[in-house]
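thought: fold this chain, then report.
action: predict
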Amino acid sequence: MDVPLHFAVKTRLVDLLERLGEGAALPPERTLAAEFGVSRWTMRQAIRELVADGRLRARQGQGTFVATPKLIQPLALVSYTEALRAQGHEPAREVVAFEEVDADAELADGLGVAVGAPVHRLERVLFADGQPIGLEITYLAVERFPTLRAVLRPTGSLYRCLTDELGVRFGEGEEVVETVIASPREAELLQATQSMPMFLLHRRSRDVDGRPIEVVRSLYRGDRVAFRATLRP
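observation:
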């Protein structure tokens, strides 16, 4: 079976990136096309795919650079803060909104409350080493966590607050992962383009007694984050 030309070029470019190393500037498109003996269109296509894969990063007006390795986010009930620090990165958060909303039918089902019941809606941009990598919206029942707003630090870990301040013991959760295109607002918050691939995660978690804790919608930049799950028979 014939391999598309741009895919063969992409494979050769990956070898070049490994030789150049993290943060190195990629030679100009014209130079690479001449060196590889292909058209600039073919080279441009291969470079675009490597940007989408997270292997290259384009900086407006500066050029294209070898990207740092993707962050690994475990698919587990663990703190975002602890997961990043375990990999040697510095996590941070920025609160976009912290408000009360009325539960619709889907939220009511996920949180075990009546339709129309008040629900905390916490929206935050997630950062790693100063760069935005995710946008997370968490919903929690006000009836169960009436003091959440008072005890949660804006830049603190929500999971640590729930466990240390509010006595929650996480039991189990379920998570669904899909790929989506970000809305204009989401792309702006994540300093990304709308064409960039994104991972969308839907999570529901329960405590050790089976009571609902949270419903979460998380959007992650596909060029910066990968996911890992431990599978057992």
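thought: worth noting. Residues 5-20 form the longest helix (16 residues).
final: tokens above.
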